[in-house]
Amino acid sequence: MKKLALHWQILIGMTLGVLWGIFASSYGLVDFTLDWLKPFGTIFINLLKLIAVPLVLVSLITGVSSLSDISRLSRIGSKTIGIYLATTVLAVTMGLILVNVFAPGKAFSPEKREEFKEQFAATTTQKSTDAAAVEQQGPLQPLIDIVPDNVFRSLTDNGSMLQVIFFALLFGIALIMIPSNKAAPVNDFFEGVNLVILKVVDIIMKFAPYGVFALLAGLVVEFAGDDPSAALELLLVLGYYCIVVIIGLALMITVVYPILVTTVGKTRYKDFFKGIFPAQMLAFSTSSSAATLPVTMERCEQNLGINKEITSFVLPLGATINMDGTSLYQAVAAVFIAQAYGMNLDIMTQIGIVLTATLASIGAAAVPGAGTVMLVIVLQQAGIPVEGIALILAPDRILDMCRTVVNVTGDATVAMVVARTEGQLHPPIEEPA
């Protein structure tokens, strides 16, 4: 009997997790689920975070050092960043067009706005405080933050991924510049470590269906509590807004990325989608591009045929700076809140939202909820009441799951495009259905 492919196992785990969450909310098993099931989801996330930094460090060093010359690194790097920025600007623009056409914010009544403000007052205050700390920094602070003063401290913090990437790039470039006979032992060491880390990924992914089940079960009971109808009622109130965001995200996955994959990548989108599907499912359940990175890299190399030289550079960089889904969400959410408050944003203000959301997406950590903090900065730049963020906090976790799928799909798309233009695509390894 054939063993089910990983993506089917994850999909089954997700479905059972949602069903259990509804059952637990209906029959008074909320505490049991939170105390005895959800922790296994947390353990699974911790396992993925455990290998995120070493994976990025080692894969980038081996990837950069394998390029053999600085000019090639410069060409691939500029191409990668250019495409990332282009897709992000396109995502933000698409989000603004949709939210202006459908105007979901105008469906809110004043009574409902006050209810949400009161319910999420504490969370809103915390997000505003976090954003204020970021905004008080100087204009070049993001550049300063990229350069670590202690690389070992950066290696102990998943939130310092840009610093890890900077060090890995510097280390890899230095390996290219020293004599090859001296660099060979170092390259061999990191190649060996990389193989070990990838094997650790394989071990962890054996537990993915169970971890995903626990994550989704915990999410549903936290959302619904002891009243399963509460989740449905809340989603219906904010459903219009959610639909607009999801339409934008769906257009990225069904229109923008397929065009890039089929025209530049010269690959059937069906094959691309099948190859990346497990990473998309994991992204949906974890809401973390960084946590999904090991699986994204594995699927791109084995199932899409992208050379490791490309994946080890493009994907870790994308998990940090390429947030198409997050940027689109920030554009929709900002205008939605303005509409809810009866504000009409002029064209220059909306252009400002495009620029701010694009830059904010580069600085957003690849972890759940980071986009919400960056959204506050977008709101402040556009002169939109920050407390309006309370209106969108309820469905944000679900939308976070959806936009992370777009982020991960965008990373894989750019990796395929860069690989094709560099002649680095080869026949993928076949996986049983």
Automatic annotation (TrEMBL):
The keyword Transcription regulation appears for this protein: no
InterPro entries for the chain: Na-dicarboxylate_symporter (IPR001991), Na-dicarboxylate_symporter_CS (IPR018107), Na:dicarbo_symporter_sf (IPR036458)
Top-level division of the source organism's lineage: Bacteria
Topology of the protein relative to the lipid bilayer: Multi-pass membrane protein
Pfam families: SDF
Gene Ontology molecular function: symporter activity
Protein's name in the database: Dicarboxylate/amino acid:cation symporter
